Amino acid sequence: MPDLLHISASPRGEESESLRLAAAFLDSYRTHHPGADIDEWDLWDGSLPAFGPAAARAKMTVVGGGTPTGEQAAAWAAAKAAFARFDAADRILFSVPMWNSGVPYVLKQFIDVVSQPGLVFGLDPATGYEGLLAGRGKRVAVIYTSAVWAPGLGREFGTDFQGPFFTGWLNWAGLDDVTEIRFHPTLTGDAAEARRIAAESARDTAKTF
After folding, report:
1. Which of 92, 96, 113 is nearest to 178 (CA)?
2. Spatial contact of 54 and 69, defined as CB atoms under 8 Å apart
3. Which residue range(s) make up the domain with 172?
4. How many angstroms separate the CA atoms of 186 and 151, rounded?
5. Which in 31, 65, 147, 183 has the greatest CB count within 10 A?
């Protein structure tokens, strides 16, 4: 089991601001947690399974109390394997750039793959959803970046569906110990200074993560 799982939603490699901040976080984490085992999961590397018709039917089969068979069983096994990798670490770092006011579609794919009944959530007809990852001592850090939108700007610079959506999903799953590291320099701001502050925040967070 890894000590820390880093899940990256950016495909931009060395040009990615979120990955630069993740690198600062991970360098600090390694310094303050010698010998830590870190799993790096690039959601663009092809390892994330699709969640299509067979998987959707498998999910509803399980919700209805049944057992997936045939192609449903294969899709269900792939979803469970993805969840197992996500669930293996008690410390999770997400690097999340803003795309079109929201999150990259591959991160939504990740959410749809792992958000399964009996794994991430329970459902009671009377009381509703239950986040099954609650109470297990898991901690999450999320690096949120954007280039145009920033707090305090008008709607002509975009709307923040990034943080409310993703942090909302984490909380729905039962993950309430969430630290946000933010970099929103805007098109006219001091990007270098904003980057320095965000990197310092990332390194400080990693010290005791």
Report:
1. 92
2. no
3. 4-207
4. 10
5. 183
Supply 54's token pair.
Answer: 């067979």
Do residues 134 and 86 make contact, with C-beta atoms less than 8 angstroms apart?
A: no
CA dihedral angle for residue 28, residue 29, residue 32, residue 33, rounded to 10 degrees: -160
| Domain total in the chain | 1
pLDDT per position in the chain (209 positions), as tens?
999 999 999 999 999 999 999 999 999 999 999 999 999 999 999 999 999 999 999 999 999 999 999 999 999 999 999 999 999 999 999 999 999 999 999 999 999 999 999 999 999 999 999 999 999 999 999 999 999 999 999 999 999 999 999 999 999 999 999 999 999 999 999 999 999 999 999 999 999 99
CATH number, residue 78: 3.40.50.360
pTM, rounded to two decimals: 0.95
Tell me the angle at which helices 191-207 and 17-32 cross, rounded to the nearest 10 degrees.
Answer: 30
